[in-house]
C-alpha cells in the first residue's frame, strides 16, 4: 500500500466514525429516553446531568486541545523547538491543583443536593410496593386494596413513592422518563419516587441482569388523569366477575378453579383471583383483573388471544425460564381459559 492510499483509507475510517457518532445526535423520539423527562424527578436528574456534562466537555476540549497542540508543535523532528521546561514551577502546580478542586466542589454541591432531594418522601404521595420476581413485577397499592402486575397506573401530577423489594435476586426498577434506577435487593427494602406531569404510557424494564429472561422483565407506567385513575383503582379493588353459566368463560373458570393438569398442577396453586375460592397462590401474578391489562408475561407480550394461546401452550417456549410449565392443555381447554381470562376486566 502506498502512503497515499493509506492516508485515503485513514480519512475514510475517520469520516465513517464521525458519521456514526453524529447519527447518535438525531432527535428521534425514543420511549425510554432519559433526556425526554416527563416528570419532576426525571427533571431533577437532567438538571444535574447537563451542567456536569458541559463542564466535562469544556475540560475535555481544553486538555485534549493542549495535548494535541503540544504533540504537533514539539514532536521529535530535525529542527523542532524545545519547549520551555517548567518542572518544579510552584505557581503552575498550585494552579492546576486548585482549578480541578474548585470544579469538583462545584459539581459536588448540586450532586449531593439532588441525591437528598430524590431520596425524600414527597408530601401527599401515593404509596405503592413493587416486588421483583424472576421475571415479572408484582404491584400493590396498600391504601387502595389493589394488587396487579407489570403495569403501574398512577395519577398525573401526584408523586408516587415506590417501595421496591425482591423475592429472589437483585433486580432494578427503571422507568427512564420518570425517574432514575433503584435496585431491588432480597432481604432489603429500597425506595424511589416517580411522578408524571402528563398523561401517557411510560415504558421501563428491569435494569439489573437477573437471569434467563431478564430482557423479558419489562414494566410500564400508565399515567392517567386523577379521575381516570380513581375509576381504575375502584374497579381493581372489586373481586373478579363471574361469567354467565354455559359460556366458554364459565368452562374456563371451572378449569381454573378445579382443573388438575400435568404433574397434578392447579392454576390456583400459583395465582390469586379475588372472588374465586381457593385461588390464593402467590407464585405467579394476581389475575383478578387480567383482562384489563394491555400486556402480560413481564409486560413483554401484548394481551391478545393469539399471544395467550401461545403462552398457554408452552409458557417457557415463549419466555425462557418461566416458572409456569407446559401444562399439556388441550386446544379446547386453552380456548376456554382465554375466554375466562379476557373477561376478567
Ligand atoms: Cu430483573
Topology:
Elements: H1 3-23, H2 40-73, H3 90-119, E1 126-133, E2 136-141, E3 146-149, E4 151-155, E5 160-166, E6 171-173, E7 182-184, E8 190-194, E9 200-205, E10 218-224, H4 226-236, H5 248-258, E11 295-296, E12 301-302, H6 305-313, H7 315-318, H8 331-342
Helix pairs in contact: 2-3, 5-8, 6-8
The structure holds copper (II) ion.
Copper (II) ion (CU) binds next to loops.
Describe the structure.
It is a single chain. Strand 2 (136-141) and strand 3 form a beta hairpin. The chain has 2 domains: 33-76 and 91-236, Cupredoxins -  blue copper proteins (Immunoglobulin-like, Sandwich); 248-342, Sandwich (Immunoglobulin-like). The protein has helices at residues 3-23, 40-73, 90-119, 226-236, 248-258, 305-313, 315-318, 331-342; strands at residues 126-133, 136-141, 146-149, 151-155, 160-166, 171-173, 182-184, 190-194, 200-205, 218-224, 295-296, 301-302. Helix content is 38%, strand content 17%. It binds copper (II) ion. Copper (II) ion (CU) is lined by residues 132, 171, 206, 208, 210, 214, 217.
